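Q: Could you write out the predicted structure for this multi-component system? I'm mainly interested in how the pieces pack against one another.
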Amino acid sequence: MEQYSSKVMEHFAHPHNVGEIENADGVGTVGNPVCGDVMRLYIKVDNNTITDAKFKTFGCGAAIATSSMVTDLVKGKTIDDALKISNAAVAEALGGLPKVKMHCSVLAEEALKSALDDYYKKKGIPSPVKMPAETGHEHEGE
Amino acid sequence: MRKVYLDHAATTPAHPKVVEAMMPFFTAKFGNPSNLHDVGREAKNAVEEARSKTAALIGSKPEEIFFTSSGTESNNFAIKGLAQANSQKGKHIIVSQVEHFSVLHPVKTLEKAGFAVTAVPPSREGLVDPAHISKAITKETVLVSVMHANNEIGTIQPIAEIGKITREKGILFHTDAVASVGWIPVDVQALGVDALSLSGHQFYGPKGAAALYVRKGVRIKPQIEGGVQEDGRRGGTENVPAIVGLGKAAEIAAADMGNRAASLTPLRDRLLAGLKQRVPDMFLNGHPERRLPHNVNVSFLYVEGESMLLFLNMEGIYVSSGSACTSRSLKSSHVLSCIGTDAAAANGTLLMTLGTGTSAEDVDYVLEKLPPIVERLRSMSPLYEDVVKSRKKT
């Protein structure tokens, strides 16, 4: 398997924003323990701006690192800007991911979108969030 | 920082005496065993000496040992070679579901070529029931292959009992003993097998030398053709230094055999008991007693294996994981899934295999470092969060 970048290892070993937010404005849980990763992302929103983000993740090194990075990226962003964060941006900010771990960045994007979707629902606003296409695991070969 | 290598099932370091024995065969004694002159004969003699030592380790005759390049090649050779050479007797093969892919994939290839295959499921502890093998036998059955010990969960199969059944019925019986040879006594007569695979780097020999035992008189079709080496069964110039190393490793293992299990078993049990004491929500995979003396395979609920592996790596502890994330295919271990380990738990599995150099201090170091890693990962696991919340409610 390809090695992780030093940035990935840094975020894995010392992840930012681990934890829960009590009475969060939006919570999104994505993934599946059978596949090996589950991400839960909490956001606090004030005045259309994400003022805080925290996560809990069950998963591999890449899953933890992408969770850490996506929470870093969204903090201080307006909701509209947060919606534009793609999995590629998360992976790029981490100095790249091994090919077989790219699905972890997809999961991070999904977790964020799911949390934003939840935020809209809680507010009673029709959600503009489009969940990204499932480009996750390709179960083939051994 | 202490370095604790607990991945001996992946590979072992070559014993210093093995390396010493190999060295002359790269330079001064570089000959090709096929040559009649003195330089060739010197190499030939060394290969034959290694054959005798390898045979002695498993109680076979030297001429029943065929050197190969790897355990994978030995298994491919056994499955395809035995099935193809004896297909006039029938075209049905029986294997267990816990076999290594180097057995299962050749079997799949034979299935595509017209063979019928029965894959017998193991028990929750990974044991294959000889009665299930017996029941699966048909008039068409030509070959049974069940591994001696499983490379992941360490369960030791009742090979001698299966051997009795196959012998009575006149069916060929192969066992993949790659994980067990060098660690526990292996005797082809006592096991009643017609073929057996072993690999040097699994027990302090070098990488690149392995062997297949084939009982005298059993027909096997060569899989590497075009050479007279290995009595015409396996073409290609011999990897003389590695074969010499394998022979030396076999000699050392034979002399040390009583000692290995006796010193490893208490360390294995110390590790497992210590973990059970310190970490809640974990369980052992495989059979508690019928297991390799150096194998600990445990699943930690609510955490993922690769993360544990990486944190352990930072502490100088080197282990393997059965998690989907550590495999290139993103599938968790087929062994864990066929013994019924829950797929989510399988992702939280660590395989720790001790070696002859592992000390009680090494084990205690793991017992000091691993529990906080599990605890830390649980503290950031949404699965654990859900469990804690639901436990609070009840």
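A: Regarding packing and overall arrangement: Residues 6-122 of chain A form a domain with the Sufe protein. Chain: A fold (CATH 3.90.1010.10).
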